[in-house]
Amino acid sequence: SDEEIREAHRDNYHVFFLWEEGTASLEIDFQKHRFKAPSVMYIQPYQVHKGLVIDNVRFKALLINNENLNPEYLNILEDISPARPLNLSNETFSLLSEAVSLNLKLYQRTNEKLYHFLLKDSCNALVALIASQYLIQSQVSDTLSRFDVISKSFKSLLERNFITLKRPSDYADMLKVSVPYLNECVKNTSGYSVSHHIQQRIVLEAKRLLYHTNKSVKEIATELGYEDYAYFSRLFSKVAGMSALTFRSKNHD
Length: 253
Fold this sequence. Notes:
Mean pLDDT: 90
Number of strands: 5
Structural class: alpha+beta
Radius of gyration: 20 Å
Helix content: 40-55%
Largest sheet: 5 strands, antiparallel
Low-confidence stretches: none
């Protein structure tokens, strides 16, 4: 509902909004996004999000967890995150709307012998359609360079290990490359160093916890793998441009 979207929250599943009418402005992981129908917005698990402006809109939403999501689609979604609003042609949006309508009809057929499989497969078909549009519009090449492959692997490893592995050498060792070569690959594809990505990911998680929980900064530091609270505080201030307490106060106004 509109009320639920307006309240800042985060979910442990993938959310796809299909905006049919109107314009909207959402804040996702503290970045503002504005878009208008017809469009799609993908929100990955655990991203803090809320609606800022939602007037005269009509939308449908698909929610699916990792357990029911095709693993290949999950890999694609990880590559395109953080996702931006995706503007669609009327023809493409019409196809997505028909797929959503089919999902809703199948959802109601609870007496089907293969009900769960029907629902799971129809939802995955819709996810595939949406992910395909993201790939088309981001012009992702089917043939990846060596730099692309290494950077993609680093990004995937970082998402799974940022709490326990915080040195560039940790990721270089896992990828069986040197630190200078890993930095070269990541800088070539993103413009930023490996250390930059590690710090950004840690501070993003800290921001999520500051916003979404009542844990103290010291508790958050410990949860993110920092026994040295003072060091974590300095890191947060350097990356975020303000102290953790200032960030919490500013975003809870």
